[in-house]
């Protein structure tokens, strides 16, 4: 008896229920990963590099016994299953719209071979935390209370020794031709893979968790930087939760971030249309700019050339590293939708292309929080002032100076007094004027029903 273990967003061997399920089903297990051309085309070079690095470490942990192939999964998975005579195919369940459609196609193509889903990337799988009337939550705070009441399982006791692994080299034919793991030679600031995820998390627990509740909004200070590892499943949040002493303020604050991650996954699960459309349809009426001038401003925003230091620092960090601090994500997003009056979808797409941790649920609903059009969103009348926000959350200017060398030697790094050094651009818009314009456009929408605001939106970062 042979089982096929199909890795996706779970590139690890510890705390992996699907591995235990595969091993309990069969004597031998073949591990595989399918490079889907559709996902490759939509992923930026750094996200592909992180994926490739994670796959290489997983292959090394399995002593080379990982089959990596390329093609539509609905073709590749049934082909491999047929080749090895698999009695079952095992996966961690995917709850995003793309993943659900893909798995439906694979399940249909497998015919009599079952596609067995065990576990998920979340502490509590989407669809399980519901209101008393059986409807999904639309506001985070009551969701969080019910989510904590629901609780979560302890880590699954899996590791490399949990299965007897088949060597892909021993397959009798090559119906699913192995391919090289992608390696674009992109320099990364964050090591990938399960071992790196574990080391990084342990270091953060020792050095950053205690002050997390105070430091989490400071881009110049240490954040956990666990979002990419959670995105690719090189660590499971259950494993992380074991190290959280929930009597401590820092651990409580971090738990709320893990809760936000589960909340946004649940929102996307219940309202899949919200991936690219306003969750609150009232906001479909908002006037946005899309012409040639809008495109020019968009390009300046992407390049970090807006003339607003905290915005430009964030965009340059993103361009150079594939990462951006969560507080700065909010500020740059607010600037795009309320100072430049551009569609939030433009910014969301750019973030997904650039971010190593680009996650559909967290990214899209974070953008809608800033635009005011999502569940539990920022009030439509909140327009962040990039100058005062920069002064508040980067008071010493260390973050701005790191990413904007033109301002490295300027005392007034947030340019509150208006004096600008040579080489740094003038503001591309007048914030006060654009704030008034944003309020004019938004006033016709008004407050939305069945919602509220927690004053923040986050994902572990």
Characterize the structure shown.
This protein has a five-stranded parallel beta sheet, sandwiched between helices. Helix 1 (17-25) links the parallel strand 1 and strand 2. With 461 residues, the chain is mostly helical. The chain contains 19 helices and five strands. Helix 14 (326-339) packs across helix 16 and helix 15 (344-354) runs antiparallel to helix 16 (360-371). It has three domains: 2-119, HUPs (Rossmann fold, 3-Layer(aba) Sandwich); 122-154 and 194-270, Serine Threonine Protein Phosphatase 5, Tetratricopeptide repeat, CATH 1.25.40; 281-443, DNA Cyclobutane Dipyrimidine Photolyase, subunit A, domain 3 (Orthogonal Bundle), CATH 1.10.579. The protein has helices at residues 17-25, 37-42, 45-61, 73-84, 97-110, 140-150, 194-207, 212-215, 227-232, 237-241, 249-270, 292-303, 309-321, 326-339, 344-354, 360-371, 386-393, 398-403, 431-442, and strands at residues 2-7, 28-35, 67-70, 86-91, 115-117. FAD binds at residues 212, 223-227, 254, 257-264, 357-359. Its cofactor is FAD. This is Deoxyribodipyrimidine photolyase. Keywords: Chromophore, FAD, Flavoprotein, Lyase. One of its GO terms (biological process) is nucleobase-containing compound metabolic process.
């Amino acid at each position: 008896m042979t089982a096929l273990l199909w890795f996706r967003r779970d590139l690890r061997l510890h705390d992996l229920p699907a591995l235990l399920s595969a091993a309990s089903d069969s004597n031998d297990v073949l591990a595989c990963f399918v490079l889907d051309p559709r996902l490759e085309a939509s992923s930026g070079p750094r996200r592909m590099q992180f994926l490739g690095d994670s796959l290489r470490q997983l292959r090394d942990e399995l002593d080379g016994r990982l089959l990596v192939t390329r093609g539509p999964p609905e073709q590749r998975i049934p082909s491999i299953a047929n080749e090895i005579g698999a009695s079952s195919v095992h996966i961690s369940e995917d709850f995003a719209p793309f993943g659900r459609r893909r798995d439906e196609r694979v399940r249909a193509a497998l015919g009599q071979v079952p596609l067995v889903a065990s576990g998920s990337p979340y502490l509590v799988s989407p669809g399980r935390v519901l209101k008393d009337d059986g409807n999904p939550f639309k506001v985070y705070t009551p969701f969080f209370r019910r989510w904590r009441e629901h609780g979560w399982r302890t880590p699954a006791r899996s590791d490399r020794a949990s299965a007897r692994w088949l060597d892909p080299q021993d397959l009798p034919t090559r119906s699913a031709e192995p391919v090289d793991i992608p390696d674009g030679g992109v320099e990364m600031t964050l090591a990938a893979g399960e071992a790196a995820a574990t080391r990084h998390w342990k270091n953060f627990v020792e050095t950053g968790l205690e002050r997390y509740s105070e430091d989490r909004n400071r881009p110049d200070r240490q954040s956990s930087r666990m979002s990419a590892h959670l995105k690719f499943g090189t660590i499971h949040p259950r494993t992380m939760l074991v190290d959280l002493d929930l009597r401590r303020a820092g651990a409580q604050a971090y738990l709320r971030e893990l809760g936000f991650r589960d909340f946004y996954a649940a929102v996307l699960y219940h309202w899949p249309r919200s991936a690219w459309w306003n969750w609150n349809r009232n906001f479909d009426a908002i006037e946005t700019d899309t012409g040639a001038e809008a495109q020019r401003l968009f390009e300046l925003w992407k390049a970090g050339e807006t003339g607003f230091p905290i915005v430009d620092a964030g965009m340059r960090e993103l361009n150079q590293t594939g990462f951006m601090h969560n507080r700065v994500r909010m500020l740059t997003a607010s600037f795009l939708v309320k100072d430049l009056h551009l569609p939030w979808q433009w910014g969301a797409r750019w973030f997904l292309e650039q971010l190593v941790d680009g996650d559909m649920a967290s990214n899209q609903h974070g953008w809608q929080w800033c635009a005011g059009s999502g569940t539990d969103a920022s009030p439509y009348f909140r327009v962040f002032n990039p100058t005062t926000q920069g002064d508040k959350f980067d008071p010493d200017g260390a973050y701005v100076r790191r990413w904007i060398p033109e301002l490295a030697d300027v005392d007034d790094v947030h340019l509150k007094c208006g004096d600008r050094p040579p080489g740094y651009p003038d503001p591309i818009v007048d914030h006060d004027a654009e704030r008034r314009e944003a309020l004019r456009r938004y006033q016709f929408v008004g407050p939305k029903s069945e919602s509220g605001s927690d004053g923040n939106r986050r994902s572990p970062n």
